[in-house]
Amino acid sequence: MSNPAADAHTGRWQSYLRDCSAVLDFAEPMQVSGRVTRVAGLVMECVGLRLAVGSACTIPVASGARIEAEVVGFDGDRLFLMPQSDVEGVVPGSRVFPVEAALPRPGSVPHPRRRPSDRARHLPVGARLLGRVVDGAGRPLDNKGPLGSDEMAPINARPVNPLDRAPIKETLDVGVRAINAMLTVGRGQRLGLFAGTGVGKSVLLGMIARYTSADVIVVGLIGERGREVKEFIEQILGPEGMARSAVVAAPADSPPLMRLQGAAYATAIAEHFRDQGKNVLLIMDSLTRYAMAQREIALAIGEPPATKGYPPSVFAKLPVLVERAGNGVEGGGSITAFYTVLSEGDDQQDPIADAARGILDGHIVLDRHLAEAGHYPAIDIEQSISRAMHSITSSQHQQAARKLKQLYSRYERSRDLISVGAYAAGSDPVLDQAIASHGKIESFLCQEIHERSAMTESLGQLTSLFD
């Protein structure tokens, strides 16, 4: 007579041993290693190994530490390695060891590792990261002890089949009146925040993070100043936002590989929560620093520069990262993403800004003149657009938003005439209405940092402007 409990226990162990056997099939039968032949700038060269691009490896140094690196290219038998930290301690002939896939834990089912992306670096994901701050390699930065997460995921996941993605059908309340009413965001939409330096991108992102109706927030602080990382977490995000957030920080002094990996890791964490059916808000600050990190790596391994010093691989990497966000399969979760894009010198034709506009589902432009005039948030509604708004809002909402935009635009075009008294009232009925309602429109578009405006409240105030 069989014992159900014993049979279940035996079945679990048999499944675990099969998982281990699947991993061991890809392991090398003996310890292989290569050696470092050259270190030049950001790149190390290695011979004696055959590894796929994206594979991880380690270099032991005399101090007993190990430098982690990733294969970013090759030339014949030479591999180009990009280290994750300083290369201090590396000597000619230092050994290079590939990182083998770890054995699975009991009860977990590993990836089949049929593709190079499946054999890439795996980092912690899951609910244990909420309220925590980690670097691009998954190491805690907040002095709160180990993560204690048993869940691991590859940082470069396979993309979702575009035909399997659910369409954008629901709105996402971000708590900012100008965005809710004029640039309505849909669950699963990907938008860019375009602005120069010091115009208020990070503060606006903090408002969105605190007031959003999303279940989970994932923040990637890529290439920002170290001071801004702590300020964003403690002052802008605050305890309320941090409680449901996972933060990945790869500041400006991190190696370019860590900045690239930090962006991919933040996206992997968001994908994990999306696969659990949650609605995730992904904030990436900034997409421009991600592109700059890729430019540093590409130029270091010899790729020729193209547009304004950016190699072609930069423009190939951007959509690969952005396309991982968005809705999952029908009935699953979603990733609504905000990417900040730094417009150098407030130039909206910057190559990264121009490329980002083509791959995102909308853009919110922050204007320096508005910021200098005390108009906060400094959103230029004339240049901003949400491409999903027409499919997730009612016709009455769209008409009211269109009317506000027309009146605002008409006033801005005639501002000089009005300010010098050259306009005669009654000459243009639309402009007369724009002048009469300009004060109310300005007040509607402005919002205090600690003020929350829900979606229903925003729509009610929008329609009341024209009653």
Largest sheet, in brief, is: 9 strands, mixed
| Continuous helix count | 14
The percent range for helix content is 25-40%
Distance linking N and C termini: 80 Å
β-strand number: 19
Structural class: alpha/beta
Compute the average pLDDT: 86
Query: Which consecutive residue ranges, at least 5 long each, have pLDDT under 50?
Result: 109-114
Please indicate the percent range of residues in DSSP E strands (runs of 2 or more).
15-25%
Radius of gyration: 25 Å
The coarse overall form would be: globular
Structure description:
- With 467 residues, the chain is of the alpha/beta class.
- It has helices at 4-24, 177-182, 201-211, 226-242, 256-275, 287-300, 312-322, 351-359, 368-372, 389-392, 395-413, 415-419, 429-445, 455-464; strands at residues 34-40, 43-47, 56-60, 66-75, 78-83, 95-98, 122-124, 132-134, 152-154, 171-172, 185-186, 190-195, 216-222, 245-250, 279-285, 326-327, 334-342, 362-365, 385-386.
- Strands 8, 12, 13, 14, 15, 16, 17, 18 and 19 form a nine-stranded mixed beta sheet that branches.
- α3 (201-211) runs parallel beside α4, α5 (256-275) crosses α6 and α11 packs across α13 (429-445).
- It starts with a helix and ends with a helix.
Q: What's the short story on this structure?
A:
The chain is of the alpha/beta class and about 475 residues long.
List its salient traits.
cell projection, 19 strands, 14 helices, six-stranded antiparallel barrel, alpha/beta, single chain, globular, 467 residues, 20% strand, Flagellum-specific ATP synthase
Q: What's the structural blueprint in terms of helices and strands?
A:
Layout: H1 4-24, E1 34-40, E2 43-47, E3 56-60, E4 66-75, E5 78-83, E6 95-98, E7 122-124, E8 132-134, E9 152-154, E10 171-172, H2 177-182, E11 185-186, E12 190-195, H3 201-211, E13 216-222, H4 226-242, E14 245-250, H5 256-275, E15 279-285, H6 287-300, H7 312-322, E16 326-327, E17 334-342, H8 351-359, E18 362-365, H9 368-372, E19 385-386, H10 389-392, H11 395-413, H12 415-419, H13 429-445, H14 455-464
Parallel strand pairs: 8-14, 12-17, 12-18, 13-14, 13-15, 15-17
Antiparallel strand pairs: 1-2, 1-6, 2-5, 3-4, 3-6, 4-5, 7-9, 10-11, 16-17, 18-19
